[in-house]
């Protein structure tokens, strides 16, 4: 077993000026969220799993610990407006059928999941409602409306442990996702595991490599000052290694999303998180 | 009117007379700096919030001039002293002439 | 054999540290727009003498991402504080004018920094005098596509 060089504290120490936050314990508005736990049994090469929050500089960590300071929350506000907005041929809004968005607590930790033989994500569920019940146009996977809504619905499960099914109907999708995770692609000939399993905790130039967990998605990235979906991030990662990315919402990314979610089993949902 | 601009403010609901309170404000705005180039290499023109004011019962608390270096979704935190009950009014001025505002009441005992 | 391995590791570590220090140093050379900032400050003060020590300027030593850098400034007794980023193409960042109901003369915000540079704060005090403070912020290039 490799000994990982754990330098997140070192990096935090370098970056610390006035931030008094403990870089190992995340609390949002006083409520503690679990950012570290034993790795699930199916992960052979990792003992402990850590949320991406643990790998960020203390200023970035601080942004997530207050729901006002968290820039992702402006988009949650926008989604609250969207919730009540009538859209589509049926003259309905989300609120017409779903009185309280709070009723969706417990949904996000189980996604993606299999429904009628298909693997579905939050985006699929939302678009199904829009097209089948509202008579509205489906939202694009990673555009503002969708990321805001997945953030609002995901937020209802914040703090709850990630818990996706990987057996039974889900098994073939999970196996596919696992295979993708370990397959080298692109001109740089790299697999997800090369960075996120073999080298998490080390620096790639000035980026502190995380384990590539998705418990905080959609996440507000400082880099583009907006919410990013997990498929949007996968696409960016693939481009970075000069590979032709799979399609957002396509079977490969959905399978990968399931596999990655399972690697975060037990971590708290942090949606909407703040990352680099 | 720039698209999707939405303000968000955090003001305590209650305070004692003469107490110092902390106010946080955020507004979703792209803050196009004027430095970026489009696909053809042409500079995308600047389009930012250029001024932010906070007033309480018509008295000014802070008046901020913003330049393109203020990040997307401009955020400000500052302190005010509240002599009596009343209403805070927050106003943002856009390069394109739009004005966005929101207000928050506070009860002072 | 063991001794040799240890020495190799140590040397590699030292080289790596030296290398990164060099990388930072080359970026921290006189930013291209430093004189623009000096000019702007001179224009604001009319050439008057500028004191130091009255402003607390808080900025990270290393910014995780230059797109969103949280900073704060505090100058008791200031009427206005202007911030500059001396390495940005447009050095002016913001001016905070404190009104009659302002409590502490302080403000926090998030700014964009184009590269490693100094943030400079210029405060105009109640008595008409000026104060100055600066902080160096290293802005890094990410590995995963920046």
Highlighted features:
heterotrimer; A: 276 residues; alpha+beta; 3-stranded mixed beta sheet; two-stranded antiparallel sheet; 11 strands; disordered N terminus; B: 109 residues; mainly beta; Immunoglobulin-like; 5-stranded mixed beta sheet; 3-stranded antiparallel beta sheet; 8 strands
User: How many helices of chain C?
Assistant: 2
Rg of chain C, alpha carbons: 19 Å
- The CATH superfamily of the largest domain in chain C is known as SoxY domain
Average pLDDT number of chain B: 94
Approximately how much beta-strand content do the residues of chain C carry?
A: 35-45%
Alpha-carbon distance between the termini of chain B?
A: 39 Å
**Portion in helices of chain B:** under 10%
CATH topology of the largest domain in chain C: Immunoglobulin-like
Structural class of chain B: mainly beta
Q: Ends of chain C: how far apart? A: 41 Å
Shape of chain B: elongated
Using the coordinates above, name the CATH class of the largest domain in chain C.
Answer: Mainly Beta
The secondary-structure element order of chain B is: EEEEEEEE
Tell me the β content of chain B. Answer: over 45%
What's the layout of helices and strands?
The complex is a heterotrimer of chains A (276), B (109) and C (146).
Chain A: H1 8-15, E1 26-28, E2 31-33, E3 36-38, E4 48-50, H2 58-64, H3 73-83, H4 94-97, E5 113-115, E6 118-120, H5 122-134, H6 144-155, H7 171-181, H8 192-196, E7 203-204, E8 207-208, E9 219-221, E10 226-228, H9 230-240, H10 251-263, E11 273-275
Parallel strand pairs in A: 9-11
Antiparallel strand pairs in A: 1-2, 3-4, 5-6, 7-8, 9-10
Helix pairs in contact in A: 3-6, 7-10
Chain B: E1 7-10, E2 14-15, E3 19-27, E4 49-56, E5 59-66, E6 75-82, E7 86-94, E8 99-108
Parallel strand pairs in B: 2-8
Antiparallel strand pairs in B: 1-3, 3-6, 4-5, 4-7, 7-8
Chain C: H1 2-27, H2 34-45, E1 50-52, E2 56-58, E3 62-63, E4 69-74, E5 78-85, E6 92-98, E7 102-111, E8 117-125, E9 130-139
Parallel strand pairs in C: 1-9, 3-9
Antiparallel strand pairs in C: 2-4, 4-7, 5-6, 5-8, 8-9
Characterise this structure.
The complex is a heterotrimer of chains A (276), B (109) and C (146). By secondary structure, chain A is of the alpha+beta class. Chain A contains ten helices and eleven strands. Chain A has helices at 8-15, 58-64, 73-83, 94-97, 122-134, 144-155, 171-181, 192-196, 230-240, 251-263; strands at residues 26-28, 31-33, 36-38, 48-50, 113-115, 118-120, 203-204, 207-208, 219-221, 226-228, 273-275. In chain A, helix 3 (73-83) packs across helix 6 (144-155) and helix 7 crosses helix 10 (251-263). The longest helix of chain A has 13 residues, at 122-134. Chain B has one domain (6-108): Immunoglobulin-like, CATH 2.60.40. Chain B has no helices and eight strands. A five-stranded mixed sheet of chain B has the order 2-8-7-4-5, with no helix packed on it. The N and C termini of chain B lie far apart (39 Å). Chain C is of the alpha+beta class. Chain C folds into two domains: 1-30; 33-139, Immunoglobulin-like. Helix content of chain C is 26%, strand content 40%. Chain C is built from two helices and nine strands. In chain C, strands 1, 3, 5, 6, 8 and 9 form a six-stranded mixed sheet that branches. In chain C, strand 5 and strand 6 (92-98) form a beta hairpin. The longest helix of chain C is centred in the N-terminal third of the chain and has 26 residues, at 2-27. The radius of gyration of chain C is 19 Å and the shape is globular. In chain C, 37% of the residues are buried. Residues 1-29 of chain C have low confidence and may be disordered. Chains in contact: A-B, A-C, B-C. Chains A and B meet through helix 3 of A and strand 3 of B.
């Amino acid at each position: 077993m490799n000994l990982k060089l754990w330098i997140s504290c070192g990096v935090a120490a370098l970056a610390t000026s006035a931030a008094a936050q403990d870089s190992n314990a995340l609390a949002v508005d006083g409520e503690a969220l679990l950012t570290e736990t034993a790795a699930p049994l199916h992960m052979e090469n990792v003992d402990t799993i850590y949320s991406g929050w643990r790998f960020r500089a203390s200023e970035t960590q601080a942004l997530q610990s207050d729901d006002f300071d968290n820039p992702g929350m402006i988009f949650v506000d926008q989604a609250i407006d969207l919730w009540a907005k009538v859209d589509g041929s049926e003259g309905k809004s989300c609120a017409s059928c779903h009185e309280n968005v709070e009723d969706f607590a417990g949904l996000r930790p189980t996604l993606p999941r299999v429904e009628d033989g298909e693997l579905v994500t939050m985006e699929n569920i939302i678009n199904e409602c829009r097209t089948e019940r509202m008579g509205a146009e489906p939202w694009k996977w990673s555009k503002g409306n969708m990321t805001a809504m997945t953030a609002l619905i995901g937020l209802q499960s914040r703090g709850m442990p990630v818990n996706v099914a990987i057996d039974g109907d889900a098994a073939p999708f999970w196996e596919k996702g696992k295979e993708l995770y370990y397959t080298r692609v692109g001109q740089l000939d790299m697999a997800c595991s090369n960075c996120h399993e073999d080298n998490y905790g080390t620096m790639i130039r000035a980026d502190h490599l995380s384990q590539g967990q998705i418990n905080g998605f959609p996440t507000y990235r400082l880099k583009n000052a907006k919410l990013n979906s997990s498929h949007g991030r996968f696409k960016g990662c693939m481009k970075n290694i000069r590979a032709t990315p799979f399609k957002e919402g396509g079977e490969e990314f959905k399978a990968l999303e399931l596999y990655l979610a399972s690697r975060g089993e037990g971590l708290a949902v942090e949606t909407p998180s703040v990352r680099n | 009117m720039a698209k999707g601009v939405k303000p968000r403010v955090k003001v305590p609901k209650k305070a004692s007379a003469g107490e110092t309170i902390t106010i946080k404000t955020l507004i979703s705005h792209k803050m196009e700096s004027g430095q970026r180039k489009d696909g053809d290499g042409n500079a995308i023109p600047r389009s930012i919030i250029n001024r932010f004011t906070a007033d309480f019962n018509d008295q000014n608390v802070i008046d901020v001039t913003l330049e393109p270096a203020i990040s997307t979704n401009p955020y400000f935190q500052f302190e005010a002293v509240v002599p009596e009950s009343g209403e805070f009014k927050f106003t943002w001025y856009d390069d394109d002439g739009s004005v966005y505002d929101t207000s928050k009441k506070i009860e002072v005992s | 054999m063991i001794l040799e391995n240890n020495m190799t590791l140590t040397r590699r570590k030292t080289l790596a540290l030296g290398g990164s220090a060099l990388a930072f140093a080359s970026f921290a050379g006189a930013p291209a727009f430093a004189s623009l900032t000096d000019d702007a400050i001179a224009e604001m003060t009319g050439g008057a003498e500028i004191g130091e020590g009255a402003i607390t300027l808080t900025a990270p030593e290393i910014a995780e991402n230059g797109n969103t850098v949280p900073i704060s400034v505090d100058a008791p007794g200031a009427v206005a504080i202007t911030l500059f980023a001396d390495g940005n193409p447009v050095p002016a960042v913001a001016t905070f004018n404190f009104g009659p109901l302002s409590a502490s003369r302080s403000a926090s915000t998030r700014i964009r920094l184009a590269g490693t540079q100094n943030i400079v704060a210029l405060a105009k005090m109640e008595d008409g005098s000026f104060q100055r403070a600066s902080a160096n912020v290293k802005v890094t290039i990410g590995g995963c596509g920046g």
